[in-house]
């Protein structure tokens, strides 16, 4: 799901890097940390669309992070409603039940298929957003996050990875106005450098490909996709 940012809490560098590469191919922006305190620090400063949480961590049990997150105060960082998908080598039924009862949204036992993981992430994020349908539609525009396809008036539209991410972020937030910083946060990880006008350039390209009417500017605030008017 482009335009989605995930925090991977995994102490094995090989597994973490593999997840970064695989999920990156599916359009996710991926930040990786190796322990509980690093994960909590990241959650306090950044809004993530989902957390992939290993349970066996060097500084404690990942379940304590899940519990701490679910008990956080609403309306501030970290968001206690952030979807959490547990990934662990503990495959006993009792462990799965405990994790789900503590507030996990889904559970995968290692080893797992990377494509299944990406699909489960998309599913938990759809549920969290209250959007059961996999496709996003706005007028004659149709966006398929899983296939990373865009169609307008029935014809396919080619978008770059970043253009797709900006479009998806704005559609998911519609009709709210998002600042440039908010859009950047959904697309770029902590260690990615970007030019100061990157979002403006992506919006310019999207308007050329999809028309000027879809993405609106609120001067001095940011960008938004207006609420669809229905007859």
Task: Provide an overview of this structure.
The protein is α/β, with parallel strands linked by helices and 231 residues long. It has 2 domains: 4-128, Rossmann fold (3-Layer(aba) Sandwich), CATH 3.40.50.2300; 136-224, Arc Repressor Mutant, subunit A. Helices cover 39% and strands 21% of the residues. The chain has helices spanning 13-25, 36-45, 62-70, 93-101, 114-128, 161-173, 180-187, 198-210; strands at residues 4-9, 28-33, 50-54, 56-57, 60-61, 84-88, 106-109, 136-138, 141-144, 149-152, 155-156, 216-218, 222-224. The strands form 4 sheets. A 5-stranded parallel β-sheet has the order 2-1-3-6-7, with helices on both faces. Strands 8-9-10-11 form a 4-stranded antiparallel β-sheet, with helices on one face. Strand 12 (216-218) and strand 13 (222-224) form a beta hairpin. The longest helix has 15 residues, at 114-128.
State the gist of this model.
With 231 residues, the protein is an alpha/beta fold. It has helices spanning 13-25, 36-45, 62-70, 93-101, 114-128, 161-173, 180-187, 198-210, and strands at residues 4-9, 28-33, 50-54, 56-57, 60-61, 84-88, 106-109, 136-138, 141-144, 149-152, 155-156, 216-218, 222-224. The longest helix has 15 residues, at 114-128.
């Amino acid at each position: 799901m482009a335009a989605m940012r995930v925090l991977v809490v995994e102490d094995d560098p090989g597994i973490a890097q593999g997840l970064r590469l695989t999920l990156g191919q599916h359009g996710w922006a991926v930040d990786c940390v190796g322990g509980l305190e690093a994960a909590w620090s990241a959650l306090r400063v950044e809004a993530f669309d989902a957390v992939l949480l290993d349970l066996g961590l060097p500084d404690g049990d990942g379940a304590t992070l899940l519990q701490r997150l679910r008990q956080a105060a609403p309306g501030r960082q970290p968001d206690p409603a952030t979807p959490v998908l547990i990934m662990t080598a503990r495959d006993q039924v009792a462990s799965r039940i405990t994790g789900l009862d503590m507030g996990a949204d889904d559970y995968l036992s290692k080893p797992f298929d990377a494509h299944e993981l990406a699909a489960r992430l998309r599913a938990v994020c759809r549920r969290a957003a209250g959007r059961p349908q996999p496709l996003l539609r706005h007028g004659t525009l149709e966006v398929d996050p899983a296939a990373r396809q865009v169609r307008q008036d029935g014809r396919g539209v080619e978008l770059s990875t970043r253009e797709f991410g900006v479009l998806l972020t704005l559609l998911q937030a519609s009709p709210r106005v998002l600042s440039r910083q908010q859009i950047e946060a959904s697309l770029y990880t902590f260690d990615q450098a970007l030019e100061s006008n990157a979002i403006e350039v992506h919006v310019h390209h999207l308007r050329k490909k999809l028309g000027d009417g879809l993405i609106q500017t609120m001067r001095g605030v940011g960008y938004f996709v207006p609420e669809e008017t229905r007859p």
